[in-house]
Amino acid sequence: MTKHIGPSAKDFHNLHKGVAAWIVSSGPSIKPLDLSLIANGVGLFVNGAVRLLNETNCASQYFVTSDERFLSSPENQALTSAQLDKDIPRIVRDKCRPIDVYQERLRTLYVYSLGRNGFSTDLANGYFFGCTSTMLAVQFAFWCGCDPVIMLGTDLSYIFENKRFYDEEKPQPVDKMLNVQLWNIANAARVFKKNSRRLLSCSEKSLIRPYVDYMPFEDAIKKYAN
User: Fold this and answer.
1) Domain, as residue range, for 200
2) How many domains does the chain have?
3) Rounded distance, CA 112 to CA 135, Å?
4) Bridge partners of residue 128, in order along the sequence
5) pLDDT tens across 163-197, in order?
6) Which of 9, 137, 143, 204 has a 20 to 30 Å separation from 16 between CA atoms?
7) Is the pTM higher than 0.90?
């Protein structure tokens, strides 16, 4: 039997109960936001948003990915391992383990995928991947007890020329599973509401706006960042 190495999902259960979590994704709408204003919350930096870690000093910070394509790039591997502050935990889909940097296993929670569509309230059993790394961040934040959970830069606007806030040396192909992503994020919002908690989005033009409560970033800062 293989000995468990690294953190356990149980280590994070209700760790940030009642604390606002800010899921920072890499959509272009993230560009004008002053991320230094979210310093008092929990910051979950998804995929390429890891580039923004130095722009905020959140009380708790995490790197999150479920994307094998993202981790397979040497540039991104450096961003998420050697260049990532040693005190920042990594939350990674278990399927990515074979291509991940071996030395990072001691600070990485590898989360088992239960399937594509759904929402897990028990991360110790696994999570539903929903064809977007944001879903791992959302379910992890729920498991940590965060409330509210506020999404920044979750635009899902793949039809525009600038799909991410940064220029990619080798652009990743665009997902063709937008309907799956939308359904899963909308379903996540329903789960939060059922549990008397809030999932919010600050992306005004995001395609998830009809399904998730929208709040301008400035309002979210005034209400939840102090």
Assistant:
1) 9-224
2) 1
3) 13
4) 115
5) 664 565 655 555 568 899 999 999 999 999 999 99
6) 204
7) yes
